[in-house]
Amino acid sequence: MKKIKKILAILMVIFLLSLYVWSFVAALQARPEANEMFWAAVFTTIFLPILLHIFIWTAEWLRGRGVDKEASEEKTEEKK
Predict the structure, then answer these.
(1) How confident is the model at residue 59 (pLDDT cuts 50, 70, 90)?
(2) Strands, E, within the chain: which ranges?
(3) What is the pTM for the complete model shown?
(4) Distance (Å, rounded) from C-alpha 49 to C-alpha 56?
(5) DSSP result, the chain
């Protein structure tokens, strides 16, 4: 699970940075969509981490309720 969290966090950072770079370039070129790009970047900066946290929390909660219990039992049996 830690690897998945790291991968998702890295992908989110890359996405947010690319969105801010795109917004900055649009502002430098005085393009009409620069304002919308800026607000899209602000919106995703706030809500994308919250959404990702909710997905991770839900996955861990479901795993504790036995949804993925059989798969984890098989993995522990293979290690023995």
Answers:
(1) confident
(2) none
(3) 0.59
(4) 10
(5) -HHHHHHHHHHHHHHHHHHHHHHHHHHHTT-TTHHHHHHHHHHHHHHHHHHHHHHHHHHHHHHHTTTTHHHHHHHHHHH-
Residues 6+ apart with CB under 8 A from 33: 26
Q: What is the CA radius of gyration of the chain?
A: 19
Q: How far is Cα 21 from Cα 79, in angstroms, rounded to an integer? A: 46
pLDDT average, residue stretch 49-58: 87
CA distance 41 to 6: 22
Q: What residue has token string 């970047």?
A: 41
Tell me the residue length of the chain.
Answer: 80
What the block records as the tokens of 66 is 């036995």
Q: Is 31 left (phi over 0), alpha (psi -120 to 50) or beta?
A: beta
